[in-house]
Amino acid sequence: MATQIKGPAIFLAQFMSDQEPFNSLPAITAWAKSLGYIGVQLPSWDPRVIDLKKAAESKTYCDELKGQCNGLAITELAAHLQGQLVAVHPAYDELFDAFAAPEVRGNPKARTEWAVEQMKLVIRASYNLGLTAVPTFSGALLWHTVYPWPQRPAGLVEEGFKELARRWKPILDYADEHGVDLAFEIHPGEDLHDGVTFERFREATGNHPRANILYDPSHLVLQCLDYIGYIDVYGPFIKAFHVKDAEYRPSARSGVYGGYQDWRNRPGRFRSLGDGQVDWKQVFTRLTAVGYSSWAVLEWEDCYKDAEQGAREGAPFIRSMLIEPPKKAFDEFAGAATDVARNRRILGLDR
Fold it and tell me: For residue 115, is it within any domain?
């Protein structure tokens, strides 16, 4: 029986390498298929799996690309690295330059223009592939002020979101022309990192219909957010879903900020599916309840467990969480036909 949420699928970014079978689309999809996955989310920046410019220009190439996937569906083209570069504070210029093409490194203005054009290529390629959502990052102009000391000057946050919206508005409009949603991953380090910041961005873009959410509960766990309630509040905006586990175990020495420690020693860390604290039964239940019907995509990040083991365990884990919609109501046997007069009698009316 079909499930409302599709899956299991896997995001290939963390598995790509120059070694077989992780160095080409036919090889890595054959590997993913052998583990039980039925869909793959492609990192649009990786030429080992996609020629982005060609995909944006040619539906024929896109059909050929699908034919290399060993029968697996392409779920989305992820554009996190390009989206990150749409908005970069100067403090991060050198660190983020590595995400850009060599010819624009060291030139923030050219790098931003390159990132905007890249986002448009991803949107057009997604359209050619018949996809309806692009997972991405928002970038950040304000993150360095997230903990306000010294106090933020009045109007700073508003100006930051005004500029962020100014940069993204043409991209959102372009996405709208192609019938594609941008699904911003709600993620620390980005200006869109919780519910309030997503709302600020939506408001700054004039509540643009293509400004939506990639839901990944791991990032909400590490911020001590109510990641289940988040689905109920923002369900209509959730257009993509990363299935990634996490744990947060504060100590007397370190908390949310992590003390500049590596992932193994931080109180909060990402885990393979089932090894963290996410209540996955509730996550899949609430996503089903709010009508989410797109893909459940494994994103693997774990400082303890090997990637291949995480991928191997991930497919059956996701499959076990998928919910088949009921054919009939569980209490249907006790129902009765609609009768207005009877209903009014039960309510004690018309007496």
Answer: yes
pLDDT at 1: 61
pLDDT band with cut points at 50, 70 and 90 for residue 2: confident
Evaluate whether residue 219 is within a structural domain: yes
191 contacts: CB under 8 Å, gap ≥ 6: 87, 138, 139, 140, 141, 142, 143, 160, 161, 164, 197, 201
Contact 312, 35 (CB under 8 A): yes
Q: What domain count does the chain have?
A: 1
User: Would residue 255 count as lying in a domain?
Assistant: yes
The CATH number linked to 106 is: 3.20.20.150
Model confidence pTM above 0.90? yes
- What is the span of the domain harbouring residue 10? 6-346
pLDDT in tens, 135-152: 999 999 999 999 999 999
Query: What does the angle CA 318 – CA 322 – CA 324 come to, to the nearest 5 degrees?
Result: 165
Distance between CA 149 and CA 138 in Å, rounded?
24
The reported pLDDT for the residue numbered 305 is: 97
Q: Name every residue whose Cβ is closer than 8 Å to that of residue 67 and which is 6 or more positions away in sequence.
A: none
Query: Any bridge partners for residue 297, and if so which?
Result: 9, 242
Tokens (6 digits) for 151: 């106090």
214 strand-pairing partners: 185, 240
Domain presence at residue 351? no
